[in-house]
Structures are given as C-alpha cells and as structure tokens.
Amino acid sequence: MAKQCADRCDAHVEELKKLQKQAELLGRTDGYGTLPSAMQLGEKFKQLAVGGGSYYDLLSNLRDRIAVATEMGDVFRKIGDRYGQAEGESAAGIRRAGYGA
Q1: Which domain, by its residues, includes 10?
Q2: Where are the coiled-coil regions (predicted)?
Q3: HSE toward the beta carbon, residue 60, CA cutoff 13 A
C-alpha cells in the first residue's frame, strides 16, 4: 500500500509540473491594450499568475504543492521500506524461535 501511495504522489507531482508549465505562459499580459487601466489589469493578472507583487501567486503555490507531494512520496517510500524490514526481522525471529517453516 505504501508503494501505491508513493506512486500516486509521483503522478500528482507530474500533473502539477504540467500545470506549472502552463501557468508560466500566464505571465504574458500584452493583450489587454494600451489604456492605463487595461495595462494595470494585465499587470495584476501577471502578478497573480507568476509573481512580482504582494500576492501568493499561482507559480509559488504550485511549487509549494510539488514540494509537499514530493516529500509525501518520500515518506511513503520510507514507510514501505521500514515495514518490509520489520516484516523480515519478525519472520527471522519466528524462525529462530522454532516456529514456521
């Protein structure tokens, strides 16, 4: 089960990286026209998407989520490894005690 969880975390990271690439394109804000209000709106959208303002932008959010999902995958892998190790040690102890095959 731990391996399945780790694999799912890895798949989630890949999906987030795809979204990250798409989000980088949102930094282009040259299509709003030349009116000052349009330029301000474009700049605000750019800041929300890729940063540069006082907002928690989309790219930062995606980077944080990628880091968390990566860390979770690593934790699940360690859990699986430790479970396998404990299972092996328990089986060896049972055999040493004269039980089992």
Answers
A1: 2-96
A2: 2-29
A3: 12
